[in-house]
Backbone:
């Protein structure tokens, strides 16, 4: 039983490493763009050219799931997606310099995020 588990785990790790290597090598222009954009990026600094400028953040709520509706106690339980959008002037590039790459996925933990608090009363 343990041997089967470890064999399956080894397969998953091997396949994952091949997929990761394949993804990195699949588009060297995107990797170069990613490295160039994030080389001097500090996620703790607001994305503005002038410190007195404001960052316009557009917020949206998207209902993902209605979990429960309690009519007696007037309680609605849901799951929602909080969408926020803003412009970061540091993430601009000429696609011609990067093999035509026009979009790039950057994990949220690597970029500046607005401080947003949802208050439910």
Residues:
């Amino acid at each position: 039983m343990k041997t089967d588990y470890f064999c399956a785990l080894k397969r998953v790790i091997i396949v994952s490493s091949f997929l990761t290597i394949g993804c990195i090598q699949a588009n060297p222009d995107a990797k170069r763009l990613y490295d160039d954009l994030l080389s001097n990026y500090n996620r703790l600094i607001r994305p503005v050219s002038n410190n007195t400028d404001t960052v316009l953040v557009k917020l949206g709520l998207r209902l993902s799931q209605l979990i429960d509706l309690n009519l007696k106690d007037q309680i609605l339980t849901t799951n929602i997606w909080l969408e926020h959008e803003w412009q970061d002037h540091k993430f601009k590039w000429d696609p011609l310099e990067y093999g035509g790459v026009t979009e790039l996925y950057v994990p949220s933990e690597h970029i500046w995020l607005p401080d947003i608090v949802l208050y439910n009363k």
Residues 28-110 form a domain with the Acetylcholine Binding Protein; Chain: A, fold (CATH 2.70.170.10). The first strand starts at residue 58 and ends at 70. The radius of gyration is 22 Å.
